[in-house]
Amino acid sequence: RLSCIRNNVWLACCGVVSAGLAVLSSFGLMLFCGVPFVVTVANAPFLILGVGVDDMFIMIASWEQSSRKKEKSNVKSLLAETYSEAALSVTITTLTDVLAFFIGTWTAFPSVRSFCLYTGTAFVFCYVYTLTFFGAVLVLNHKREEGNRHWLTCMRVGVDNQAENSCLYNACCIGSCSRQSSEPEGEHPMSVFFKKYYGPFVTNKWIKLLLVLLYGAYLGGSIYGCTQIREGIDLRNLANDDSYVIPYYDDDEKYFSTYGPRVMVVITESVDYWNETVRRGIESCAQNLE
């Protein structure tokens, strides 16, 4: 936002901090419990950050709607209204994510099991921090706005007639270089765009028909793409860091990668190996293959 009062930069930063606290708490708990830390677990913070920021935007949007509905209400009723709107969505999202990753702990691969344990636990902590830590930050930010304080320095914003003040002082303490006090804004421009322009546009019957055709083309392309997917996972990432599998694959790639894959022949029927004629037939088959 352009308003020096309604700007929520610190609020957004605290939302990212909330996700970071969830990562630290979950990783610390798992390490304390002795769960192995493998290289795939290093990808988990990016997942937690994505979900944490999404929950943050849901909370902020619900708070904004509640504050517009009840401008004269106290902080308790505003926070209660925010949780009644946002907590359900955040809870369902967290439950599905946690369930998906904890189901992944049933796999036979130790590295995948560790990754799912770390990530699932981090989602639980992310949920707890969103509803506690970030909720408290919302209230503090609301009190700052009520006190007409600047978003950066938290100093009271007012018109200062002293012309000798620098532009930096005016921007951080008054609100703008022109020494004009910033009033709280109304509805966000993005909300106005989607409500007045984008919504009516996509509900036009010809646009809806075009969107259906585009989605059909997208769906067909996706199905075709799924049939072309090839496995490309590095098996070294599925093992623990101290597993013998890692140096085995390293040496195999270093010394034998130029020879191509090994060719194996399996006899699936019962064979009388004690019969000399059968053995000669097998040896002859092997020579033909070579």
TrEMBL record:
One Gene Ontology term, aspect cellular component: membrane
Pfam families, alphabetized: Patched
Keywords of this entry: Glycoprotein, Membrane, Transmembrane, Transmembrane helix
Membrane protein topology class: Multi-pass membrane protein
SSD domain sequence ranges: 1-140
Claim: Transmembrane helix is one of the keywords in the record: yes
UniProt feature coiled coil, ranges: none
Main location: membrane
Membrane-crossing segments per the record: 9-38, 44-63, 86-109, 115-140, 206-225
Localization per Swiss-Prot or TrEMBL: Membrane
Domain of life of the native organism: Eukaryota
Similarity comment text for this entry: Belongs to the patched family.
Protein name, per record: PTHD3 protein
Species: Furnarius figulus
Upper lineage: Eukaryota, Metazoa, Chordata, Craniata, Vertebrata
Gene encoding the protein: Ptchd3
